[in-house]
Every structure is written in C-alpha cells, then in structure tokens.
Write a structure and sequence with these properties.
This protein is of the alpha/beta class and about 400 residues long. Helices cover about 35% and strands about 25% of the residues. The protein has 2 domains: about 10-175 and about 215-315, 3-Layer(aba) Sandwich (Rossmann fold), CATH 3.40.50; about 320-400, Immunoglobulins (Immunoglobulin-like).
C-alpha cells in the first residue's frame, strides 16, 4: 500500500490475507476477516488482547480508536460491543476506519490495562496497515476517561479526543460513589435535590452503581484516596491536564452517573496548565433525567462535535501530505527527474524515495533523477517524514522505457 491512504477495501483484503500468513511468525493470532456492506473487518489477538478494526470503502486514511466502558464485574470477551458497533455505524460512512480492543477482557475500572492495551493495539494497527492519516480517540463514560488519559500521555500518536460524559477525577468519583452506596433511596433524593420526576428505581440503580463503582476503583488503585493518593492521581485526567492535542467534551448538566462538576474541575486544570485553547466543552440540558451519556441531547451532538474535532485538528496541524510528479515515457539512457511536493505536518520534512518496495540509497531529496538502460515500466514513490516522525507516502509514479 504505497499510495495515499485513500485505499479501497479490496486492497485491505489482500493485505489481510498476507497478514494471516505472517502473523503466526510474529506471535499474533488473527481471528479472521469479513467483508460487509461498505467495509472490511479484521479481528485478532495480540498478547491476549482481542481487537477489531473496520475499514470503510472508500477509506479516507484516518483511524478512530474507540474506548469502551467495561461492565462492572464482567469481563469483555469481544471488542465488538454494541457501543462499538454504534460508533462504527456513525463513523464508517464518514470514511474513517474504526478500531477497538477488549482490554484483555478486564472488567471493573481497568484504567492501567485499558491505557496500555489501547496504545499497543493502536500502534500495531498503525504500523501494520501503514496508516499515515490522523488517529483520533473516541470514548464515553469510563471510556471517555481512558480516551482523555491516552490523549494526555500519547499526543504524538493521537491527533484529538472526543470525550462523552467521561469522568475526569477519580478522587471525586470515589467520594460520590461511596456516598451513594451508603444512602437510602429517600436520602439519595435529598442529597441530589431531585424532584419526584426521578423515579425510585433510578435512585436504587444509583445506589447499586455507587457500591460497584467504588469497589472497582478500590481494586484498581489498591486502596482509598487517603491510603494511595498517587494511584488516584495516575488514573485521573485532571492531574495530567497539560494537553497538547485538541479535546472536546460532551456532557449533560443533568448527568447523575458523572456529575457535570467534573467538567468544571477539568476545565480549571486545563486552564491552570495554560492549555485552554485546546479544550472545548459542549454542555447539554437533559431530555430525560439522569440518563447522562445516553441522553438524546448528548447523542445529537456526537456527529457534529466529532466533525468539529477533526476540522479543529486540521487547523492546528494540517495533515502531512505528499504528491509525486509525474508518469513519463522515455527512451533508454535518458534521465528523468521525479519531483515530490509535501505540505502539512510539523516542522521540516525529510524525503526517501523507493523503487517498488526497495529503498533507494542516497535518494533523499525532493527531486530524484532516474536513468534506465533496459526496457520496461518502473514504479517509484516518495516517503516523507516530518519533525515529529509522522510519515506520508506519495502516489506511485511510473517511468516507462522504450527503445
């Protein structure tokens, strides 16, 4: 796949067949591939972590990594959760490939496992499928927390993050959940100042949610905030808010699972780090009390805000692009000069020309002279690398030599 990342699903299928053969040598277990209407899907197992990636046809060369929310106390065996499928249904028609992992089956609040496995899977997909377009993060609730942590930790890999109702501060989570767990339903109604429109069944769910959520946090951090404050800081985006890529949060002001006050905390932390120019908040009023990330007003904003995120990222740092010029026919012994034009990316660009798949030693400038003394058609492309190490491949150009 030497051309720009506007690859077709048929190209992906050919690559996947080759990977099925090569993956055994690399210790990667491929579960199989499938082609559905409009996309090609690959599933695999990397170090005990199952992953899925779907490539649309046509593909715009960019990737979205979905971060899911584990069910408390239940392992996730298949990365194709209902929320992943819904995310893919939204983004595939826009031209984005969509990937996800199952965090190795971890349930509860597996922040450390989620961060490490998502990063590993992202790197693997980027390297394996030669993705040179931008990579974005997308996560809701706990997945929003993981997306924020990944955005903060790996800004050279990811180009932006969409956080939907994610928790920002696990200290606050633990205090809130513990309080809910220890109150009766009438006390929860009073504590949250909720009118009768909020049914008792919803408040009973909050009590159960508080008990399970606080236990999951204890299991991840190894103790209470007082006993292990550093562990809580490590998994709280608020304590790492020196962001360097654009982040957008969508959050309902009536969210009872993750109170909107957490957004205010994160905004303050981002401002303190001097990064307010990289953070935007879309607050919504609840349509139905307490539904949070599944509220209709939140859902209505997702597609709009994702498009905004991509556009914003492109404004801040245009995608690295390169074009090579041009196909030509010459006679034997003549010298032709191919030219590569690149723009976008970050800082200065370096160049490396290839003939077919073979690196051409010494051909590291924008212009490459080629002389052939044999008849035939020869194919070349140029790989460009920016100052951050991001790469882009040009289109193929051909030199046809006649007698």
């Amino acid at each position: 796949m030497h051309k720009n990342n506007s690859g077709k699903a048929s190209t992906i299928v050919i690559l996947l067949v080759a990977l099925l053969i090569l993956s055994a040598l690399a210790g990667i277990q491929f579960m199989g591939t499938a082609t559905a209407a409009g996309y090609t899907e690959a599933m695999g197992n990397l170090g005990g972590v199952q992953f899925v990636v779907r490539f649309p046809d046509p593909w715009n060369g960019m990737l979205v990594v979905y971060c899911h929310t584990p069910v408390l106390g239940q392992p996730v065996l298949d990365p194709r959760t209902s929320h992943y499928n819904g995310t893919a249904d939204l983004l595939l028609p826009k031209g984005y490939a969509v990937a996800a992992s199952n965090y190795g089956g971890a349930g509860g609040f597996p922040a450390s496992k989620a961060i490490s496995s998502t990063y590993t899977i992202t790197k693997y997909i980027v390297d394996t499928y030669h993705i040179t377009g931008k990579v974005f993060l997308y996560g809701a609730v706990m997945g929003g927390t993981f997306a924020l942590l990944l955005a903060e930790k790996y800004p050279s890999l990811y180009s932006g993050a969409l956080d939907i109702s994610g928790s920002k501060d696990v200290f606050q989570d633990y205090a809130y959940m513990t309080t809910l767990a220890n109150l009766t339903v009438p006390q929860i109604r009073s504590y949250l100042n909720l009118p009768p429109i909020y049914p008792d069944a919803m408040l009973q769910f909050l009590k159960i949610y508080g008990a399970g959520g606080s236990l999951a946090i204890l299991n991840e951090t190894g103790g209470t905030p007082t006993a292990n404050p550093k562990a809580y800081e490590d998994v709280s985006p608020t304590y790492h808010a020196n962001i360097s890529i654009p982040v957008i949060t969508i959050h309902s002001t009536g969210d009872l699972l993750v109170p909107f006050s957490q957004v205010t905390l994160y905004q303050a932390a981002v401002a303190k780090a001097g990064r307010s120019n990289l953070y935007r908040v879309c607050s919504t009023s609840p349509v139905v009390p307490g539904l949070g990330n599944s509220d209709a007003n939140v859902i209505a904003q997702i597609s709009i805000r994702f498009d905004e995120l991509v556009s914003w990222s492109e404004q801040l740092q245009p995608t690295l692009r390169v074009s090579a010029f041009c196909n030509v026919t010459v006679i034997t012994g003549w010298t032709w000069y191919f030219f590569a034009h690149s723009n976008g990316g970050f800082g200065s660009h370096s160049y490396q020309w290839y003939e077919g798949t073979t690196l051409l030693a010494g051909q590291t400038s924008m212009v490459m002279p080629v002389t052939k003394n044999t008849l035939g058609t020869f194919t070349f492309y140029c790989k460009v690398t920016d100052a951050e190490g991001k790469t882009a491949n040009s289109n193929n150009v051909t030199l046809t030599v006649i007698g």
